[in-house]
Amino acid sequence: MGRRHLARELALKVLFELEADGGDAERALQYHVAESRADAEVADFARTLILGVLEHRAEIDARLAEASRNWGLDQMAKVERTLLRIAGFEILFLPSVPLKAAINESIELAKTFGGPDSGKFVNGILGRIAADAETGRPPEDQAAAVRDAS
Fold first, then answer.
1. For 81-98, what is each residue's pLDDT tens digit?
2. Domain ranges, ordered by start, for the chain
3. Closest residue by Cα to residue 79 from 55, 102, 111, 52
């Protein structure tokens, strides 16, 4: 398992937990880091994802609502909604992460933690968000995203 994959998995677990009980993000992260024996680099990326989702949740949710034509956020399974928020944060606010990587990782996590059709569902929504994000990026960022995805 790759380092960023593990970081995304940790972020999923923490954000899932926080949505249920509204606990302390740092304490939940430290628990899951210790449980998975993740190193500081993995913990730092997971923290970036967690804090980014929490900070930009309203904007991410608005973009998810636009991209999800038939499902409201409250109708989505919690795992899928959480994964979409993580990937949405990466796509919208972390230009250093290739779009393809953010989408593919979320699909893989959806297949692992979600239902039988979770991967397809996540892929469809993230594909729409990524297409919108690509058209909004400056040309040099678009070229970098294509180059990084190769």
1. 999 999 999 999 999 999
2. 3-149
3. 111
